[in-house]
Amino acid sequence: MTPFNDPEMEELMKIKEPYKKANRKYKAEDTIINIGDIHFGEGNFHVFSGPCSVESKEQITEVANRVKAAGATVLRGGAFKPRTSPYAFQGMAADGIELMLEAKRETGLPIVSEIMNIALLDLFADVDILQVGARNMQNFDLLKALGRSKKPILLKRGLANTIEELLMSAEYIMAGGNDNIILCERGIRTFETATRNTLDISAVPVLKKLTHLPVIVDPSHGCGKAELVEPMSLAALAAGADGLIIEVHNDPANALCDGPQSLTPDQFDTLMRDKIRPMSELMGKKLGA
Amino acid sequence: MTPFNDPEMEELMKIKEPYKKANRKYKAEDTIINIGDIHFGEGNFHVFSGPCSVESKEQITEVANRVKAAGATVLRGGAFKPRTSPYAFQGMAADGIELMLEAKRETGLPIVSEIMNIALLDLFADVDILQVGARNMQNFDLLKALGRSKKPILLKRGLANTIEELLMSAEYIMAGGNDNIILCERGIRTFETATRNTLDISAVPVLKKLTHLPVIVDPSHGCGKAELVEPMSLAALAAGADGLIIEVHNDPANALCDGPQSLTPDQFDTLMRDKIRPMSELMGKKLGA
Amino acid sequence: MTPFNDPEMEELMKIKEPYKKANRKYKAEDTIINIGDIHFGEGNFHVFSGPCSVESKEQITEVANRVKAAGATVLRGGAFKPRTSPYAFQGMAADGIELMLEAKRETGLPIVSEIMNIALLDLFADVDILQVGARNMQNFDLLKALGRSKKPILLKRGLANTIEELLMSAEYIMAGGNDNIILCERGIRTFETATRNTLDISAVPVLKKLTHLPVIVDPSHGCGKAELVEPMSLAALAAGADGLIIEVHNDPANALCDGPQSLTPDQFDTLMRDKIRPMSELMGKKLGA
Amino acid sequence: MTPFNDPEMEELMKIKEPYKKANRKYKAEDTIINIGDIHFGEGNFHVFSGPCSVESKEQITEVANRVKAAGATVLRGGAFKPRTSPYAFQGMAADGIELMLEAKRETGLPIVSEIMNIALLDLFADVDILQVGARNMQNFDLLKALGRSKKPILLKRGLANTIEELLMSAEYIMAGGNDNIILCERGIRTFETATRNTLDISAVPVLKKLTHLPVIVDPSHGCGKAELVEPMSLAALAAGADGLIIEVHNDPANALCDGPQSLTPDQFDTLMRDKIRPMSELMGKKLGA
Questions:
Q1: CA dist A190 to B138, B166, B189, D228, Å?
Q2: What residue stretches are annotated with the DAHP synthetase I/KDSA domain (chains A, B, C, D) (predicted)?
Q3: Less Cβ around it within 10 Å: N or C end of chain D?
Q4: How far is B43 from chain A (nearest CA, A)?
């Protein structure tokens, strides 16, 4: 149906599985993704942390210093925010990216931020990891454009997307030539209303079997409640995840976005020291290496 | 949270409902959308029809002539196709748009086609209605850009999006200044596997109560089976929809996309004449006016 | 796996389809179910109506007379109520059945009521149709016991059950020797919160193709809102249903159960006369015969 | 609405929460359930294990001895099986219970088995824990009857039931006077097809907060694949569960029911020794006490 003038691609199309480059049958060993001194894969366990949205220089710098001290190895922070309502805070945009870069310079932490519009790719030149959010998991033009980039991509599962569809979206990026993809389970839509979404922990071992790409879990968006971040972080680690992405805010009660699911820096510190570190040791994973 | 320097917007923000411009409480009378000689609203009932994908000049022209003769008032046809797999047929792109325009010139039918990338907006200059597909319903940058356009928008409900979220996405377009929006129910994701999706017919009366915007239904994508198009078209009409969008292909068995859910031109002709016309009369709707 | 000493059953087991006796491939013609002078099938359309719960002699008698006058052919009324909370009104139990029988004697309408416990079967001796509620669709011991009865069964689809599972539950009853089954779509659980459940209208044509059993729709429980009963009743009829089950209460605001989804007798009268009658004529169905 | 002649109940009804006796607000300390020498609660962690169905004396005795040696403290085994198809193996019925009792006498392990029909309660006189299966979670007559028993109840969450509904079903049993309830998360229905169900691990911390009753997890039914039992068992333990229920079969390939999700005795032994024991120590739980 689709003719290729590329011998490697012709070879690939002979694989019957719907996803080919992302398929562990095609490449058995784990993909290792290098971001500065950080290595995904090789049995390491990484925690991404930071606020849902960048709000000010003070906020992002304080949070960055605190999460770094606690053991986080990547700083997260949204500058462009996908909000259900056009009247809700949409993020600081270019200014937010600039503040993230300042925090990066100050702490040395690599940074991850969501890109929603490929026209703004230049703005993300010094961002270490580009995040594709759940609502854009099947924004195929965005995926194709990121396939032409060489930057690591954090690809989040859509709210109603199957595990196979997540792998097909990774395949879009890989088919374009970019193999640096970190997959992220962040909760799916179900009838249950006690949690914001239903975090599908079983997606972790299913993905680890089907693909060689690293898999992390977002318990903050997955559950929508700060009190569930600890148990679900530990569940993700126990199920074999390669990392976590946890929201931390210096003042959750006054956060411009997603305060109810954010930990304070103190809570994050305790979680890392008393819970995640000992469990990652038990699981034979090296925390933040 | 979001400061506006616009008195109308300041007024709007006082409305407590999450969607404001789309809200029937704010504007009780139905929005009428004019496309050439066609008027949405005022008790008219319109059927959009055509192939899932434009495949050739012969195909689109033949289908266009047949569906026009049968009573369709808008020609649909995909040039840019959102496909789960990067290895599946992605549409004829610019050539597909050109063929749609030829079919428009030949038949006089206004045309609708999906736009996935705002960078390609110029290519759609002569397309009458821009479709936002289910996977892009929360591609907010796309919605904002379309708000600055004045073209009618066909906004499809996402596979896991609530009715309220659909209205919030319409609100994004309206907040930008474009009120010409047609909403489309096209099936949601559930546990049921007998149908491709579960077509939520109750979304029609719910939407008609909540908003003044016209609402149409896509039974082809909603069910994924040609044999279900007739009963579900009639159900949508009986539930109060303002129109339908039905896939028709000259050769469904060999269609490059979605053949199993496409009607033949003969089947469409029979459906329109023997079923949709008498039922629209019973419902007090004027077919294709 | 299961040895049968019954030649008919041995023959049946050779059919590969999971449901055999319920399968249209095994019996092409519609099953006709006779209840007094009423015939299901043969192109008839029946409306079951009455209150969610029997509350008093005055209530059930008044409602029975009103819905009969409006054209309903079966009186519904719950005596044993499956309630989520043990502290909610559980129905009038045996007294409720007695009041239903009085209303039957007064109006001549056959009656349907839910049975939740097979130990109470004797109490239902003069009830014309035994209802298996959504929560008991896979109460297999109940299904087996009803298979040994010869009474018509109204089998409701479970909230999270597939169409195939509904047919398998019908098969349980039929395997026991009772072929008098009316299937009922009454809404499934999804993420949508604007309606109580999502009424799966597409289940009607899917079931009509797969089985020879009659299929009715319950828009009252399916949507949970009185204002949606009219459009969804018409949608069900348009999609090919053989009947409806509609809740009518003389005083919805003070109903002990499900008031928000109940019509008044006047609303039901108007719905039957102005909407359901003309549409059943258009669909070529004979109302209440 | 419901008048009570019981002062304790009158007091109870003043609590505004929908579930009262099951509510941690009403009773802060964990409920401890004693079964022979085994204590649920007090920071213990129990693993229930055994085959899906009892198939023969040799099978159940062998499995019982093996799982006991590996550290399981309760033997599970189905005698009455709820099967979607009436033509599938329905269990050994009374003979199955008898074989479970023999295995109990031989190993000293307390036993749990599913009861689907209250008329058979006498048959379960020496069964230690009565299981209410997912399909019967809202079989309210069964719940009421079990409320009058004093036996410990293992109450499984229904496939489409919310956490609150699970607690309301527990409340039915408690309102009848039986407080000995163990709750079980066993997967919910979603659109995902890579797993049999989606195991909702977040239900564990949500339940532990809302109720004082113990909570266990069934990774076997929850995922439907043997390879997922290990990671999901560890995830459940890490999330705070009080126990697990794991299917073990001496010959999974030839099991009469649910073979694909069963571990072999060797696999179970390794899981307990190498994974569950060290993780329960890390979590500060005493395994099988």
A1: 18, 18, 10, 21
A2: 33-271
A3: N
A4: 30
Q: How far apart are CA B155 and CA C93, in angstroms?
A: 50
- Closest by CA position to C160, among listed B164, A138, B192: B192
Which structural domain range is residue B126 located in?
A: 46-187+196-287
Evaluate whether A211 touches A163 at the Cβ level (below 8 Å): no
Query: Residue C271's Cα: distance from chain center in Å?
Result: 19
A225-234 confidence digits (pLDDT tens):
999 999 999 9
- Beta-carbon contacts of residue B139 (< 8 Å; ≥ 6 apart): A116, A135, A136, A139, B132
Q: Chain C: list its partners (3+ Cβ pairs within 8 Å).
A: A, B, D
> Which chain A residues have a beta carbon less than 8 Å from that of B20?
87
**Whole-angstrom distance, CA of residue B66 vs CA of residue B64:** 5
Annotate C198-245 with DSSP letters as a single string.
B--TTHHHHHHHHBSS-EEE-HHHHH--GGGHHHHHHHHHHTT-SEEE
- Quick check: C86 and D135 CB within 8 A? no
Residue D49 vs residues C205, D91, D96, D219: alpha-carbon distances, Å: 44, 18, 16, 11
What angle (nearest 5°) sits at the alpha carbon of residue B6, between those of residues B2 and B7? 110
**Of residues A1, A18, A140, nearest to B82 (C-beta):** A140
Q: Which residues of C touch A190 (CB under 8 A)?
A: 191
Average pLDDT over residues A152-181: 97
- A169 located within any domain: yes
Q: Which residues of A256-273 are buried (b: 16+ CB within 10 A; e: fewer)?
A: bbbbebbbbbebbbebbe
Query: Is C210 contained in some domain?
Result: yes
pTM of the full predicted structure?
A: 0.95
Residues of chain B in contact with residue D190, where contact means CB-CB under 8 angstroms, are 191
CB atoms within 10 A of CB B151: 16
Chain C residues near residue D17 by CB distance under 8 angstroms:
none
Chains near B, with 3+ CB pairs < 8 A?
A: A, C, D
Per-10-residue mean pLDDT, chain D, length 289: 60 81 94 91 93 96 98 97 94 97 97 95 97 97 95 97 98 97 98 97 98 98 96 98 97 90 97 98 93
Q: How many CB atoms lie within 10 A of CB A225?
A: 19
Closest chain B residue by Cα to residue D159: B191
Interacting residues of B117 by C-beta distance below 8 A, sequence separation 6+:
A118, A141, B80, B142
Cβ contacts of residue C158 below 8 Å, gap of 6+? Answer: C134, C135, C137, C138, C165, C166, D160
SS3 D229: helix
Number of structural domains in chain D = 1
Q: Minimal CA–CA distance to D246: which of D275, D286, D210?
A: D275
Do the beta carbons of residue A78 and residue A91 sit within 8 Å? Answer: yes
Q: Is the dihedral of CA C6, C10, C15, C16 positive or negative?
A: positive
Structure tokens at B117: 């990338």
Residue C168 maps to which CATH number? Answer: 3.20.20.70
Residue B16: band (very low, low, confident or very high) from pLDDT cuts 50, 70, 90 = confident
Residue A247: inside a domain, yes or no? yes
Amino acid (1-letter code) at residue C153? I
* CB pair distance less than 8 Å for A205 and D228: yes
Residues in chain C: 289
Give tens-digit pLDDT for B57-72.
999 999 999 999 999 9
ipTM: 0.95
Instruction: Tell me the CA distances in angstroms from C74 to A194, B15, C137, one per residue in order.
Output: 39, 46, 22
C163 located within any domain: yes
What is the 3-class SS of A205-274, one letter each residue? HHHHHHECCCEEECHHHHHCCHHHHHHHHHHHHHCCCCEEEEEECCCHHHCCCCHHHCECHHHHHHHHHH
Residue A163, amino acid: I
